[in-house]
Amino acid sequence: MNEERIHRTRSEDGTELVGRVSGQGPPLVLVPAGPGDSETTWRFAIPRLRERFTCHAMNTRGRGLSGGHPEHTPDRLVADITAYVESIGDPVGLISGGNVEWPLVTTNASPAVAAIAAWEPIFDKLLSEADAAVLADVFGRVGALAAEQRLEEAAQAWLEGMAAAGFYTPEDAVDGAAPAFWQAAVSNIPLFVHQEALAADAEGLGPADPSVLAQVTAPVLLLHGSRTHPAFVDMVRHVATHVAHPQVREIPGAGHFGIYTEPAAVTDEMVAFFAANLVRA
Q1: Cα separation of 205 and 212, whole Å?
Q2: Which of 48, 124, 257, 264 has the smallest set of CB atoms within 10 Å of its CB?
């Protein structure tokens, strides 16, 4: 049964959280990455995952059908995901791309999360000084354009900056994967810039701290592309070193946008992982 349904709940501060639901089987909650909403982020994964699982394309505050709110701190985003997974009533699998900080902390906050799969987790505070400087420069240009509501130009500045720095492979940048994602998410760029600034201002390593990762006892599947930027591979290794039950899989031929360019290979790994770690939960 693949008819789309709507699931609604509220975060602890009353913000309405909405997810589009399709498929049948044990529940998976897919959370958005970057500026995307969940439907944009996982547009190629959901049709395959829902053959075995009930897929909740949930959105945190200010994205998709979910309600808006002036507060967008990392703690609020964790509260959003926690409230949504606990409203389902069964153990869930959690799927994250990029912004894995919030879902990883959610696994500590809620026993409802039985397993988590993450595509190329990104922790800005683990970047080398050189990579951090490049990213700060890109964010500065994007933020300035977003502040003037020049959102199409902001998206283009991000694409060009990330490709020039090698964070996106040439194929990701020109074959439609990265541009398609950013164009679909263009309206969320100001929110993305704001949330990233709040995360950057937080003290310490936050969710990347080994002591925080050590509290993640649920099984964790960490996926990365074979052609991705070395910094993203280093972050996968960092998480795998410190969580209790990691599995690491490399997707041949994929760059950072492997969830767009190699969806079959990515989702096959997720299906096998959740079949082993969620169905039995």
Answers
A1: 9
A2: 264
The amino acid present at 54, given as its one-letter code, is: T
Q: Which residues of 208-245 are buried (b: 16+ CB within 10 A; e: fewer)?
A: beeebbeebebbbbbbbbebbbebbbebbebbbebbee
Phi, psi of 7 (to 5 degrees): -115, 130
DSSP H helical segments within 148-209, as ranges? 151-164, 170-174, 177-184, 189-201
The token pair that represents 56 in the structure block = 């909740």
CB 33 within 8 A of CB 41: yes
What distance in Å separates the CA atoms of residue 189 and residue 184, rounded to the nearest whole number? 10
Residue 278, classed as helix, strand or coil, is: coil
Tokens of 129: 């000084």
Contact 170, 189 (CB under 8 A): no
Cα distance between residue 126 and residue 20, in whole Å: 33
C-alpha gyration radius of the chain: 17
Q: Which two tokens stand for residue 254?
A: 């994929």
pLDDT tens string for the chain (281 positions)?
567 899 999 999 999 999 999 999 999 999 998 898 999 999 999 999 999 999 999 999 999 999 999 998 888 888 999 999 999 999 999 999 877 667 777 777 788 999 999 999 888 888 999 999 999 999 999 999 999 999 999 999 999 999 998 998 887 876 668 888 888 889 999 999 998 888 877 777 778 889 989 999 999 999 999 999 999 999 999 999 999 999 999 999 999 999 999 999 999 999 999 999 986 54
- Per DSSP, the three-state class of 236 is helix
And the tokens for 55?
A: 């897929």
